[in-house]
């Protein structure tokens, strides 16, 4: 599909004395467009917000096959370090694979001590069993049908690839396995929002994360939304819950 201006990286510095620094991480095959309402809501409340574009995204799915989980993590890590140049501590938030990358930041020994809060929506901690074969099949089967726009609200569209590159699925599988093994190292306070009717990420992934992380967890159910909850019916309620949770954490 054609990607709009909303799928470009976005940053709002906020006022002279912002409420804090917030890094937002978008999901697998998606783009910042799915996160812009969340980003703009918190920026309007006085937060300095950084919303980067992951390498290989918002171009073509063929381009995505030339990037790896190390490229994706490197981008969000660099964005976190740039925010930390202006803030003693920052918050990190993400949806889907963006939630997985957020958890990776909370496991990073250089980043984790300076995180004040995490806010995650339908984060991925596993991938479907079929993905086990992705490293073997991708030279033969280059792509699968799209996973985008799992949204209950009519008329809402997620800007994302029309195909899912299988080589990138293998990278996602490796990323989730790496993060899952070290969940006990996540001690940052966590708001964990879950859609029971998620057709992309198994809702039980949220239960797994909540059970294994080492810090405090607040759960939020999004009963009227599918996977892309930031563009769905529960988005306004979630944005308010996210803002409250982040502002209750010490700077």
UniProtKB/TrEMBL annotation:
One GO MF term: carboxylic ester hydrolase activity
Active-site feature positions: 96 (nucleophile), 198 (charge relay system), 227 (charge relay system)
Record-linked Pfam families: Hydrolase_4 (PF12146)
Site (Important for substrate specificity): residue numbering on this chain: 147
Segments forming domain Serine aminopeptidase S33: 17-222
Residues reported in the UniProt entry to bind substrate: 28, 97
Superkingdom in the source lineage: Bacteria
PANTHER family named among the record's database cross-references: HYDROLASE ALPHA/BETA FOLD FAMILY (PTHR43194), PIMELOYL-[ACYL-CARRIER PROTEIN] METHYL ESTER ESTERASE (PTHR43194:SF5)
Protein name: Esterase
């Amino acid at each position: 599909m054609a990607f709009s201006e909303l799928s470009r990286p976005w940053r709002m510095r906020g006022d002279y004395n912002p409420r804090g620094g917030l890094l937002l991480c978008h999901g697998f095959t998606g783009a910042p467009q799915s996160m812009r309402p969340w980003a703009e809501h918190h920026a309007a409340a006085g937060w300095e917000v950084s919303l980067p574009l992951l390498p290989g995204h918002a171009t073509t799915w063929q381009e995505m096959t030339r990037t790896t989980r190390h490229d994706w993590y490197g981008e969000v890590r660099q964005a976190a370090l740039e925010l930390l140049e202006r803030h003693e501590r920052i918050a990190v938030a993400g949806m889907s694979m963006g939630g997985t990358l957020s958890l990776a930041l909370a496991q990073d020994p250089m980043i984790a001590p300076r995180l004040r809060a995490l806010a995650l929506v339908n984060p991925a901690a596993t991938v479907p069993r079929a993905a086990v074969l992705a490293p073997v099949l991708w030279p033969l089967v280059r792509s699968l049908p799209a996973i985008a726009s799992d949204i209950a609200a009519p008329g809402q569209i997620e800007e994302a690839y029309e195909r899912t590159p299988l080589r990138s699925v293998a990278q996602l599988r490796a990323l989730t396995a790496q993060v899952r093994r070290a969940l006990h190292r996540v001690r940052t306070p966590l708001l964990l929002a879950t859609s029971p009717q998620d057709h992309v990420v198994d809702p039980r992934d949220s239960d797994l994360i909540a059970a294994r992380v080492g810090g405090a967890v607040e759960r939020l159910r999004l009963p009227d939304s599918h996977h892309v909850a930031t563009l769905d019916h529960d988005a306004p309620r979630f944005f308010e819950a996210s803002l409250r949770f982040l502002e209750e954490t010490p700077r």
